[in-house]
Design goal:
The complex is a heterodimer.
Chain A (H helix, E strand, L loop, with lengths): L6 E11 L2 E12 L3 E5 L6 H8 L10 E2 L6 E4 L11 H6 L8 H14 L15 H14 L4 E5 L7 H17 L3 E6 L2 H7 L2 E6 L4 E7 L12 H24 L6
Parallel strand pairs in A: 3-7, 3-8, 5-6, 6-7
Antiparallel strand pairs in A: 1-2, 1-4, 8-9
Helix pairs in contact in A: 3-4, 4-5
Chain B lengths: L1 H5 L8 H13 L3 H32 L1 H16 L2 H11 L5 H23 L3 H9 L4 H39 L5 H10 L3 H29 L7
Classes of the chains: A alpha/beta, B mainly alpha.
Chain lengths: 255, 229
């Protein structure tokens, strides 16, 4: 899973919802071992792309889909933890029966340590805060031996401070285990902070309007450089422009 | 109060007579065997209905066609008067088994319906999460569906037990197995020992109360997570 310059591709993607053409001959390349942020306004079709990658949505046509056979782990908008299982059992849930008990214990404890929740391993989700629950979801995603980690607006709904802690936790975990991440968001700051590459999407039909390569230089959450600010403002303007166009169509509610 | 107003021990005994009656029946040789036999029959009927109601309920909850197919049969069992069910059972089976069968028929529709509701209301996003992580169907059933329906199931068992005890004793009164609370009740009535009728009725109420609380204790112990949300 090292970044050896190879890419995962989707080519010739076509997908429609009733009369709405969501994707038409769409293509995207994701560099292995990198974090790719897909930035776009709500309703433009970002989640659908993740669903195609995760074999949840079936495209009408697709020429190349490297993601089809890859193993994937997910971090969703909601934590999706099982309320009747402890933190430990929730993380172990996705690898149970795949490896032996002892190995599983070591692995789960290791990832819980990484997200700083080891001392909460016997707690139930109902006893945790929103940010802690999302950190458990991060541990669950990393403990699963996936080729690609897919994230669908995982920081949505968290307050600013909690979001920062969860993002830092994610970066820390990823630095130790640099697997390919496809991250969908409508928040410019999140996209810039995490991504090696930011693809700005517009649609429907969805197209990449701009691609920004940051090589992950903005991951230190404590600093806000002038370059970061300028880029953030430019992307915000670009996204707002996209939003205006979309709002004008009134057809952007399919997500 | 009623006993004071009526002032006839043969129609409505005083609380003192009832407690004296309890003292008598507890000392009788067949007290414990009668109580335990009734408990055994009631629990056996409920156990069978939990197994059948859960299995069919899960299946019907997952498959709409099964649900539609079973609907009229479950409605038929639910709406048929208990006495009619007892009379039919008396023709078909031995007196010992009639209360078990009745307990099953009373509890089954409640447990089945609650299980179906539980399955229908399972959080589908959790099932999707398990699927994208490649968790197998049997584990999804055991680790997501069954825990999700547990609160529906315990509510069903609790209701079924409340109604079930009454039906079991009614069935025992009509089928009169050798050892049972129902048989003791009808004997006391025949001999006009009204204090004993009330004493046995109190024993039946106590049984219902004990088992209802047992269900609650089991629910509390096994579903610790529920109190933490």
């Amino acid at each position: 899973m090292e970044n050896n310059g190879l890419t995962y591709k989707i080519e010739g993607l076509g997908l429609r919802y009733d009369s709405l053409i969501l994707y038409k001959d769409f293509e995207i390349k994701i560099k292995k071992g990198s974090i790719v942020s897909m930035l776009g306004p709500s309703g433009c079709g970002k989640t659908t792309l993740l669903n195609v990658m995760g074999n949840i949505a079936k495209p009408d046509e697709i020429k190349v889909n490297d993601f089809k056979t890859l193993s994937k782990s997910f971090i969703f908008q909601e934590h999706r933890l099982l309320p009747w299982k402890t933190v430990y059992d929730n993380v172990a849930f996705v690898i149970k029966k795949r490896i032996d008990e002892k190995q599983m214990q070591e692995l789960v404890n290791e990832y819980l340590r990484q997200v700083e929740l080891l001392e909460f391993k016997d707690y139930y989700p109902g006893e945790l805060s929103g940010g802690m629950k999302q950190r458990v979801a991060i541990a669950r995603a990393f403990v699963y031996p996936s080729d690609v980690l897919v994230m669908d607006e995982p920081f949505k709904g968290l307050d600013v401070r909690t979001k920062r802690v969860v993002m830092e936790t994610f970066i820390k975990a990823w630095e130790k285990d640099k697997r390919t991440v496809v991250f969908v968001t409508h928040d410019v700051e999140e996209a810039l902070r995490l991504g090696d590459e930011i693809h700005i999407l517009d649609g429907p039909p969805v197209k990449v309007v701009e691609k920004v390569c940051t090589k992950g230089v903005f991951r230190d959450m404590r600093t806000e450089t002038l370059e970061f600010r300028n880029l953030r403002n430019r992307l915000k303007c670009l996204l707002d422009g996209v939003c205006e166009v979309l709002d004008g169509t009134g057809e952007n509610d399919e997500e | 109060m009623i006993s004071g107003l009526i002032s006839s021990e043969i129609i409505f005994p005083s609380p003192f007579s009832v407690f004296k009656g309890i003292g008598f029946i507890v000392r009788e040789d067949y007290f414990w065997i009668s109580v335990l036999s009734t408990v055994k029959r009631g629990l056996l009927g409920i156990l069978i209905s939990v197994i059948a109601g859960c299995a069919l309920g899960v299946f019907a909850g997952l498959k709409k066609r099964v649900r539609v197919f079973l609907r009229p049969y479950v409605s038929l069992i639910r709406t048929t008067p208990v006495v009619v069910l007892i009379l039919i059972a008396l023709i078909w089976m031995s007196s010992d088994f009639v209360p078990v069968f009745i307990s099953f028929l009373i509890a089954f529709p409640i447990i089945y319906t609650n299980t179906v509701q539980g399955i229908i209301h399972v959080d589908k996003s959790l099932v999707d999460m398990a699927k994208v992580y490649g968790v197998g169907n049997s584990r999804i059933l055991r680790e997501i569906y069954l825990p999700s329906i547990s609160s529906y199931l315990t509510a069903g068992v609790s209701t079924a037990m409340g109604i079930g005890w009454k039906a079991v004793i009614a069935a025992e009164i009509l089928s009169q197995p050798k050892y049972s609370i129902g048989t003791r009740l009808i004997e006391a009535k025949i001999y006009l020992e009204i204090d004993r009728v009330f004493a046995w009725a109190l024993v039946a109420v106590a049984l219902s109360f004990i088992f209802d609380n047992l269900v609650r204790i089991v629910e509390k112990r096994t579903m610790k997570w529920k109190t933490m949300d």
